[in-house]
Amino acid sequence: MILLSGGLDSATTAAIAAKQGFGLYALSVDYGQRHRFELAAARRVALALAAKEHVVLAVALGQLGGSALTSPIEVPKDRSGDQMAHGIPITYVPARNTVLLSLALAYAEVVGAADIFLGVNAIDYSGYPDCRPEFIAAFSALANLATKAGVEGRLKFHIHTPLIQWTKAEIIRRGVELGVDYGLTHTCYDPDPAGLSCGRCDACLLRRKGFAEAGLADPLPYQG
Amino acid sequence: MILLSGGLDSATTAAIAAKQGFGLYALSVDYGQRHRFELAAARRVALALAAKEHVVLAVALGQLGGSALTSPIEVPKDRSGDQMAHGIPITYVPARNTVLLSLALAYAEVVGAADIFLGVNAIDYSGYPDCRPEFIAAFSALANLATKAGVEGRLKFHIHTPLIQWTKAEIIRRGVELGVDYGLTHTCYDPDPAGLSCGRCDACLLRRKGFAEAGLADPLPYQG
Asked: Looking at residue A132, what DSSP letter applies?
Protein backbone atom coordinates (compact mmCIF):
# COMPACT_ATOMS: atom_id res chain seq x y z
CA MET A 1 0.00 0.00 0.00
CA ILE A 2 1.47 3.33 -1.07
CA LEU A 3 0.49 6.92 -0.39
CA LEU A 4 0.89 8.45 -3.82
CA SER A 5 0.89 12.23 -3.96
CA GLY A 6 1.98 12.43 -7.56
CA GLY A 7 5.28 14.03 -6.59
CA LEU A 8 8.82 12.87 -7.20
CA ASP A 9 9.34 11.25 -3.80
CA SER A 10 6.19 9.15 -3.73
CA ALA A 11 6.70 8.03 -7.35
CA THR A 12 10.19 6.83 -6.44
CA THR A 13 8.90 5.13 -3.29
CA ALA A 14 6.22 3.36 -5.33
CA ALA A 15 8.86 2.11 -7.77
CA ILE A 16 10.95 0.83 -4.83
CA ALA A 17 7.93 -1.00 -3.36
CA ALA A 18 7.14 -2.55 -6.75
CA LYS A 19 10.79 -3.61 -7.16
CA GLN A 20 10.57 -5.33 -3.75
CA GLY A 21 7.66 -7.35 -5.09
CA PHE A 22 4.76 -5.58 -3.39
CA GLY A 23 1.48 -5.27 -5.29
CA LEU A 24 0.61 -1.58 -5.36
CA TYR A 25 -2.60 -0.38 -3.75
CA ALA A 26 -2.25 3.36 -4.22
CA LEU A 27 -4.08 6.03 -2.23
CA SER A 28 -4.09 9.71 -3.11
CA VAL A 29 -5.79 12.30 -0.99
CA ASP A 30 -7.49 15.37 -2.36
CA TYR A 31 -7.17 17.57 0.73
CA GLY A 32 -7.85 20.85 -1.03
CA GLN A 33 -4.22 21.43 -2.01
CA ARG A 34 -3.80 24.32 -4.44
CA HIS A 35 -1.45 22.11 -6.44
CA ARG A 36 -4.27 19.73 -7.35
CA PHE A 37 -2.42 18.97 -10.57
CA GLU A 38 -0.51 16.46 -8.47
CA LEU A 39 -3.64 14.27 -8.33
CA ALA A 40 -3.56 13.88 -12.12
CA ALA A 41 0.15 13.11 -11.81
CA ALA A 42 -0.68 10.44 -9.21
CA ARG A 43 -3.07 8.83 -11.71
CA ARG A 44 -0.35 8.80 -14.38
CA VAL A 45 2.22 7.31 -11.99
CA ALA A 46 -0.23 4.64 -10.73
CA LEU A 47 -0.94 3.67 -14.31
CA ALA A 48 2.74 3.61 -15.30
CA LEU A 49 3.55 1.34 -12.34
CA ALA A 50 0.55 -0.94 -13.03
CA ALA A 51 -0.99 -0.38 -9.58
CA LYS A 52 -3.64 -2.97 -8.67
CA GLU A 53 -5.93 -0.18 -7.53
CA HIS A 54 -5.78 3.60 -7.18
CA VAL A 55 -8.21 5.31 -4.83
CA VAL A 56 -8.55 9.10 -4.56
CA LEU A 57 -10.16 10.14 -1.31
CA ALA A 58 -11.33 13.70 -0.64
CA VAL A 59 -11.12 15.48 2.70
CA ALA A 60 -11.43 19.24 2.69
CA LEU A 61 -8.61 20.25 5.06
CA GLY A 62 -8.87 23.70 3.50
CA GLN A 63 -12.13 24.10 5.44
CA LEU A 64 -9.94 24.26 8.55
CA GLY A 65 -7.50 26.80 7.10
CA GLY A 66 -4.05 27.48 8.49
CA SER A 67 -1.86 26.72 5.48
CA ALA A 68 -0.66 28.41 2.31
CA LEU A 69 -1.26 25.11 0.52
CA THR A 70 -5.00 25.08 1.20
CA SER A 71 -5.88 28.74 1.83
CA PRO A 72 -5.44 31.99 -0.10
CA ILE A 73 -2.08 32.70 1.55
CA GLU A 74 0.89 33.42 -0.69
CA VAL A 75 3.36 30.57 -1.22
CA PRO A 76 6.92 31.77 -0.40
CA LYS A 77 9.28 32.00 -3.39
CA ASP A 78 13.04 32.10 -3.97
CA ARG A 79 13.99 31.13 -0.42
CA SER A 80 17.64 30.29 0.15
CA GLY A 81 18.79 26.92 1.52
CA ASP A 82 19.52 28.70 4.79
CA GLN A 83 15.99 30.07 4.99
CA MET A 84 14.56 26.63 4.27
CA ALA A 85 16.76 25.06 6.94
CA HIS A 86 15.29 27.23 9.72
CA GLY A 87 11.75 26.96 10.95
CA ILE A 88 8.61 25.37 9.59
CA PRO A 89 7.18 27.32 6.64
CA ILE A 90 3.65 28.56 6.04
CA THR A 91 3.16 25.77 3.49
CA TYR A 92 2.94 23.39 6.46
CA VAL A 93 -0.56 21.84 6.49
CA PRO A 94 -1.69 21.18 10.07
CA ALA A 95 -1.35 17.48 10.88
CA ARG A 96 -1.27 16.57 7.19
CA ASN A 97 0.84 13.44 7.37
CA THR A 98 -1.11 12.24 10.41
CA VAL A 99 -4.31 12.59 8.39
CA LEU A 100 -2.75 10.97 5.31
CA LEU A 101 -1.32 8.04 7.29
CA SER A 102 -4.59 7.49 9.16
CA LEU A 103 -6.41 7.23 5.82
CA ALA A 104 -3.63 4.97 4.53
CA LEU A 105 -4.06 2.78 7.60
CA ALA A 106 -7.81 2.50 6.99
CA TYR A 107 -7.20 1.56 3.35
CA ALA A 108 -4.38 -0.87 4.22
CA GLU A 109 -6.58 -2.64 6.76
CA VAL A 110 -9.41 -3.02 4.23
CA VAL A 111 -7.17 -4.45 1.48
CA GLY A 112 -5.18 -6.54 3.98
CA ALA A 113 -1.83 -4.82 3.41
CA ALA A 114 0.56 -4.75 6.36
CA ASP A 115 3.17 -2.70 4.51
CA ILE A 116 2.52 1.02 4.12
CA PHE A 117 4.98 2.95 1.96
CA LEU A 118 5.43 6.69 2.39
CA GLY A 119 7.80 8.94 0.48
CA VAL A 120 8.81 11.26 3.30
CA ASN A 121 12.29 12.67 3.41
CA ALA A 122 14.08 14.35 6.32
CA ILE A 123 17.15 15.59 4.40
CA ASP A 124 16.23 17.76 1.40
CA TYR A 125 12.86 18.77 2.77
CA SER A 126 10.94 21.76 4.02
CA GLY A 127 11.32 21.23 7.76
CA TYR A 128 7.89 19.71 8.32
CA PRO A 129 7.65 17.94 11.70
CA ASP A 130 5.66 15.04 10.24
CA CYS A 131 8.49 13.99 7.91
CA ARG A 132 10.87 12.96 10.72
CA PRO A 133 11.78 9.41 11.78
CA GLU A 134 10.42 9.92 15.33
CA PHE A 135 7.00 10.81 13.89
CA ILE A 136 7.01 7.69 11.71
CA ALA A 137 7.99 5.50 14.68
CA ALA A 138 5.15 6.94 16.78
CA PHE A 139 2.65 6.30 14.00
CA SER A 140 3.84 2.70 13.56
CA ALA A 141 3.24 2.07 17.26
CA LEU A 142 -0.21 3.62 16.99
CA ALA A 143 -1.18 1.63 13.89
CA ASN A 144 -0.94 -1.73 15.60
CA LEU A 145 -3.02 -0.56 18.58
CA ALA A 146 -5.62 1.23 16.47
CA THR A 147 -6.89 -1.51 14.22
CA LYS A 148 -8.87 -4.72 14.39
CA ALA A 149 -6.31 -6.46 12.15
CA GLY A 150 -3.46 -5.21 14.36
CA VAL A 151 -5.08 -6.19 17.66
CA GLU A 152 -6.14 -9.58 16.34
CA GLY A 153 -2.60 -10.18 15.08
CA ARG A 154 -3.66 -10.71 11.46
CA LEU A 155 -1.54 -7.81 10.23
CA LYS A 156 1.59 -6.32 11.75
CA PHE A 157 1.67 -2.86 10.22
CA HIS A 158 4.98 -1.47 9.13
CA ILE A 159 5.51 2.04 7.77
CA HIS A 160 8.25 1.93 5.13
CA THR A 161 10.05 5.21 4.43
CA PRO A 162 12.93 4.16 2.17
CA LEU A 163 13.83 7.76 1.21
CA ILE A 164 13.86 9.27 4.66
CA GLN A 165 17.65 9.65 4.91
CA TRP A 166 18.44 10.19 1.22
CA THR A 167 19.32 13.45 -0.48
CA LYS A 168 17.09 14.55 -3.34
CA ALA A 169 19.89 13.70 -5.78
CA GLU A 170 20.10 10.15 -4.39
CA ILE A 171 16.32 9.77 -4.70
CA ILE A 172 16.39 10.87 -8.33
CA ARG A 173 19.32 8.63 -9.24
CA ARG A 174 17.62 5.60 -7.70
CA GLY A 175 14.35 6.45 -9.43
CA VAL A 176 16.02 6.75 -12.80
CA GLU A 177 17.70 3.36 -12.24
CA LEU A 178 14.25 1.91 -11.56
CA GLY A 179 12.85 3.48 -14.72
CA VAL A 180 10.68 6.15 -13.10
CA ASP A 181 9.52 8.70 -15.65
CA TYR A 182 9.75 11.96 -13.71
CA GLY A 183 7.98 13.70 -16.56
CA LEU A 184 4.78 12.15 -15.19
CA THR A 185 5.20 13.69 -11.73
CA HIS A 186 4.16 17.07 -10.34
CA THR A 187 6.08 18.88 -7.60
CA CYS A 188 5.22 22.60 -7.65
CA TYR A 189 3.17 24.10 -4.79
CA ASP A 190 1.98 27.02 -6.89
CA PRO A 191 1.53 26.07 -10.55
CA ASP A 192 -0.10 28.42 -13.06
CA PRO A 193 -3.65 27.65 -14.23
CA ALA A 194 -2.28 25.38 -16.95
CA GLY A 195 -0.32 23.37 -14.37
CA LEU A 196 3.08 24.75 -15.33
CA SER A 197 5.52 24.71 -12.39
CA CYS A 198 6.68 28.03 -10.91
CA GLY A 199 10.26 26.88 -10.39
CA ARG A 200 10.61 29.13 -7.33
CA CYS A 201 8.65 27.63 -4.41
CA ASP A 202 10.51 25.46 -1.89
CA ALA A 203 9.29 22.28 -3.58
CA CYS A 204 10.49 23.37 -7.05
CA LEU A 205 13.80 24.64 -5.69
CA LEU A 206 14.51 21.34 -3.90
CA ARG A 207 13.57 19.38 -7.01
CA ARG A 208 15.74 21.45 -9.36
CA LYS A 209 18.69 21.32 -6.95
CA GLY A 210 18.27 17.53 -6.79
CA PHE A 211 18.36 17.10 -10.57
CA ALA A 212 21.34 19.46 -10.80
CA GLU A 213 23.27 17.53 -8.12
CA ALA A 214 22.37 14.21 -9.75
CA GLY A 215 23.73 15.59 -13.04
CA LEU A 216 20.44 14.82 -14.78
CA ALA A 217 17.96 16.92 -16.73
CA ASP A 218 14.57 17.55 -15.16
CA PRO A 219 11.99 16.53 -17.81
CA LEU A 220 9.47 19.08 -16.49
CA PRO A 221 9.11 22.52 -18.10
CA TYR A 222 9.02 25.59 -15.83
CA GLN A 223 7.48 29.04 -16.12
CA GLY A 224 9.59 31.96 -17.37
CA MET B 1 -11.83 21.21 21.07
CA ILE B 2 -14.34 18.38 21.02
CA LEU B 3 -15.07 15.59 18.54
CA LEU B 4 -18.84 15.66 18.47
CA SER B 5 -20.52 12.66 16.85
CA GLY B 6 -24.02 13.58 18.00
CA GLY B 7 -24.22 10.52 20.22
CA LEU B 8 -24.77 10.27 23.94
CA ASP B 9 -21.10 9.92 24.90
CA SER B 10 -19.75 12.87 22.95
CA ALA B 11 -22.63 15.11 24.12
CA THR B 12 -21.78 14.26 27.72
CA THR B 13 -18.07 14.81 27.07
CA ALA B 14 -18.83 18.21 25.55
CA ALA B 15 -20.86 19.18 28.62
CA ILE B 16 -17.97 18.10 30.87
CA ALA B 17 -15.49 20.18 28.83
CA ALA B 18 -17.82 23.20 28.99
CA LYS B 19 -18.23 22.73 32.75
CA GLN B 20 -14.42 22.75 33.08
CA GLY B 21 -14.41 26.16 31.39
CA PHE B 22 -13.20 25.19 27.92
CA GLY B 23 -14.61 27.09 24.95
CA LEU B 24 -16.08 24.51 22.61
CA TYR B 25 -14.70 24.17 19.11
CA ALA B 26 -16.71 21.22 17.84
CA LEU B 27 -15.77 18.98 14.93
CA SER B 28 -18.08 16.39 13.41
CA VAL B 29 -17.00 14.09 10.63
CA ASP B 30 -19.26 12.91 7.87
CA TYR B 31 -17.43 9.69 7.02
CA GLY B 32 -20.26 8.08 5.12
CA GLN B 33 -21.88 6.53 8.20
CA ARG B 34 -25.32 5.07 7.48
CA HIS B 35 -26.53 6.73 10.68
CA ARG B 36 -26.01 10.19 9.22
CA PHE B 37 -28.83 11.41 11.42
CA GLU B 38 -26.16 11.76 14.08
CA LEU B 39 -24.73 14.75 12.19
CA ALA B 40 -27.99 16.65 12.66
CA ALA B 41 -27.88 15.60 16.31
CA ALA B 42 -24.34 17.00 16.54
CA ARG B 43 -25.63 20.34 15.24
CA ARG B 44 -28.37 20.38 17.87
CA VAL B 45 -25.93 19.52 20.67
CA ALA B 46 -23.38 22.12 19.53
CA LEU B 47 -26.14 24.74 19.52
CA ALA B 48 -27.47 23.69 22.94
CA LEU B 49 -23.97 23.93 24.44
CA ALA B 50 -23.27 27.29 22.75
CA ALA B 51 -20.18 26.01 20.91
CA LYS B 52 -17.95 28.79 19.57
CA GLU B 53 -17.76 26.98 16.24
CA HIS B 54 -19.02 23.73 14.74
CA VAL B 55 -17.28 22.35 11.67
CA VAL B 56 -18.55 19.34 9.73
CA LEU B 57 -15.82 17.77 7.63
CA ALA B 58 -16.53 15.10 5.02
CA VAL B 59 -14.28 12.16 4.23
CA ALA B 60 -15.80 9.26 2.35
CA LEU B 61 -14.44 6.28 4.30
CA GLY B 62 -17.24 4.27 2.70
CA GLN B 63 -15.21 4.46 -0.54
CA LEU B 64 -12.76 2.11 1.18
CA GLY B 65 -15.44 -0.35 2.37
CA GLY B 66 -14.91 -2.90 5.10
CA SER B 67 -17.60 -1.90 7.60
CA ALA B 68 -21.32 -2.39 8.15
CA LEU B 69 -21.50 1.28 9.13
CA THR B 70 -20.38 2.55 5.74
CA SER B 71 -21.19 -0.30 3.34
CA PRO B 72 -24.31 -2.27 2.45
CA ILE B 73 -23.56 -4.95 5.08
CA GLU B 74 -26.29 -5.79 7.59
CA VAL B 75 -25.94 -4.28 11.08
CA PRO B 76 -26.14 -7.07 13.73
CA LYS B 77 -29.24 -6.96 15.94
CA ASP B 78 -30.32 -8.33 19.33
CA ARG B 79 -26.83 -9.45 20.36
CA SER B 80 -26.43 -10.52 23.98
CA GLY B 81 -23.95 -8.88 26.36
CA ASP B 82 -21.83 -12.00 26.03
CA GLN B 83 -21.77 -11.72 22.26
CA MET B 84 -20.79 -8.06 22.50
CA ALA B 85 -18.03 -8.85 24.98
CA HIS B 86 -16.23 -11.17 22.55
CA GLY B 87 -14.53 -10.01 19.39
CA ILE B 88 -14.71 -6.85 17.35
CA PRO B 89 -18.00 -6.57 15.43
CA ILE B 90 -18.59 -5.87 11.74
CA THR B 91 -19.68 -2.33 12.66
CA TYR B 92 -15.99 -1.58 13.28
CA VAL B 93 -14.86 1.09 10.79
CA PRO B 94 -11.21 0.55 9.83
CA ALA B 95 -9.01 3.05 11.67
CA ARG B 96 -11.99 5.33 12.37
CA ASN B 97 -10.80 6.90 15.60
CA THR B 98 -7.31 7.37 14.16
CA VAL B 99 -8.85 9.26 11.25
CA LEU B 100 -11.16 11.25 13.55
CA LEU B 101 -8.37 12.16 15.96
CA SER B 102 -6.04 13.15 13.14
CA LEU B 103 -8.69 15.54 11.81
CA ALA B 104 -9.30 16.77 15.37
CA LEU B 105 -5.57 17.39 15.71
CA ALA B 106 -5.52 19.43 12.49
CA TYR B 107 -8.49 21.48 13.67
CA ALA B 108 -7.09 21.91 17.20
CA GLU B 109 -3.78 23.16 15.81
CA VAL B 110 -5.52 25.71 13.58
CA VAL B 111 -7.71 27.12 16.39
CA GLY B 112 -4.85 26.92 18.91
CA ALA B 113 -6.51 24.40 21.23
CA ALA B 114 -4.19 22.09 23.19
CA ASP B 115 -7.04 20.15 24.77
CA ILE B 116 -8.84 17.59 22.62
CA PHE B 117 -11.91 15.94 24.15
CA LEU B 118 -13.11 12.56 22.92
CA GLY B 119 -16.08 10.59 24.23
CA VAL B 120 -14.61 7.11 23.95
CA ASN B 121 -15.55 4.50 26.49
CA ALA B 122 -13.85 1.17 27.20
CA ILE B 123 -16.48 -0.29 29.56
CA ASP B 124 -19.97 -0.37 27.99
CA TYR B 125 -18.71 -0.36 24.44
CA SER B 126 -18.57 -2.51 21.36
CA GLY B 127 -15.04 -3.85 21.70
CA TYR B 128 -13.46 -1.45 19.21
CA PRO B 129 -9.65 -1.38 19.55
CA ASP B 130 -9.51 2.39 19.07
CA CYS B 131 -11.54 3.06 22.22
CA ARG B 132 -8.90 1.74 24.62
CA PRO B 133 -6.59 3.76 26.91
CA GLU B 134 -3.44 2.40 25.23
CA PHE B 135 -4.64 3.70 21.87
CA ILE B 136 -5.33 7.13 23.35
CA ALA B 137 -1.88 7.23 24.98
CA ALA B 138 -0.21 6.34 21.67
CA PHE B 139 -2.13 9.08 19.86
CA SER B 140 -1.19 11.68 22.49
CA ALA B 141 2.48 10.84 21.99
CA LEU B 142 2.06 11.13 18.24
CA ALA B 143 0.21 14.47 18.40
CA ASN B 144 3.10 16.35 19.95
CA LEU B 145 5.58 14.98 17.39
CA ALA B 146 3.29 15.51 14.40
CA THR B 147 2.54 19.19 14.58
CA LYS B 148 4.27 22.52 14.15
CA ALA B 149 2.65 23.81 17.35
CA GLY B 150 3.75 20.70 19.25
CA VAL B 151 7.34 20.74 17.99
CA GLU B 152 7.69 24.48 18.56
CA GLY B 153 6.32 24.04 22.08
CA ARG B 154 3.42 26.45 21.59
CA LEU B 155 0.84 23.76 22.34
CA LYS B 156 1.19 20.63 24.44
CA PHE B 157 -1.63 18.48 23.12
CA HIS B 158 -3.62 16.44 25.60
CA ILE B 159 -6.36 13.98 24.65
CA HIS B 160 -9.06 14.07 27.34
CA THR B 161 -11.27 10.99 27.60
CA PRO B 162 -13.26 11.60 30.79
CA LEU B 163 -15.72 8.75 30.13
CA ILE B 164 -13.23 6.05 29.29
CA GLN B 165 -13.66 4.06 32.52
CA TRP B 166 -17.32 4.89 33.24
CA THR B 167 -20.32 2.63 32.75
CA LYS B 168 -23.04 3.89 30.43
CA ALA B 169 -25.27 4.46 33.49
CA GLU B 170 -22.59 6.64 35.11
CA ILE B 171 -22.21 8.62 31.88
CA ILE B 172 -25.96 9.25 31.70
CA ARG B 173 -26.24 10.24 35.36
CA ARG B 174 -23.38 12.71 35.00
CA GLY B 175 -24.86 14.12 31.81
CA VAL B 176 -28.25 14.62 33.41
CA GLU B 177 -26.58 16.42 36.33
CA LEU B 178 -24.91 18.73 33.81
CA GLY B 179 -28.22 19.37 32.06
CA VAL B 180 -27.55 17.43 28.86
CA ASP B 181 -30.77 16.93 26.89
CA TYR B 182 -30.38 13.38 25.58
CA GLY B 183 -33.43 13.92 23.44
CA LEU B 184 -31.14 15.92 21.13
CA THR B 185 -28.70 13.04 20.62
CA HIS B 186 -28.72 10.14 18.16
CA THR B 187 -27.25 6.73 18.93
CA CYS B 188 -28.68 4.10 16.58
CA TYR B 189 -26.46 2.53 13.90
CA ASP B 190 -29.39 1.57 11.73
CA PRO B 191 -32.25 4.07 11.96
CA ASP B 192 -35.26 3.92 9.62
CA PRO B 193 -35.53 6.50 6.83
CA ALA B 194 -37.24 8.92 9.22
CA GLY B 195 -34.35 8.64 11.68
CA LEU B 196 -36.22 6.52 14.23
CA SER B 197 -33.86 4.30 16.24
CA CYS B 198 -34.04 0.52 15.77
CA GLY B 199 -33.57 -0.24 19.46
CA ARG B 200 -31.80 -3.50 18.62
CA CYS B 201 -28.29 -2.74 17.30
CA ASP B 202 -25.36 -2.84 19.76
CA ALA B 203 -25.43 0.94 20.13
CA CYS B 204 -29.15 1.06 20.95
CA LEU B 205 -28.88 -1.91 23.31
CA LEU B 206 -26.01 -0.30 25.25
CA ARG B 207 -27.88 2.99 25.43
CA ARG B 208 -31.13 1.42 26.65
CA LYS B 209 -29.30 -0.71 29.22
CA GLY B 210 -27.53 2.46 30.43
CA PHE B 211 -30.79 4.36 30.95
CA ALA B 212 -32.35 1.34 32.65
CA GLU B 213 -29.39 0.96 35.02
CA ALA B 214 -29.39 4.69 35.75
CA GLY B 215 -33.10 4.42 36.60
CA LEU B 216 -33.93 7.13 34.07
CA ALA B 217 -36.24 7.30 31.08
CA ASP B 218 -34.63 7.52 27.63
CA PRO B 219 -36.25 10.52 25.93
CA LEU B 220 -35.78 8.95 22.46
CA PRO B 221 -38.58 7.02 20.77
CA TYR B 222 -37.79 3.62 19.23
CA GLN B 223 -39.26 1.60 16.37
CA GLY B 224 -41.89 -1.06 17.10
From this structure: S
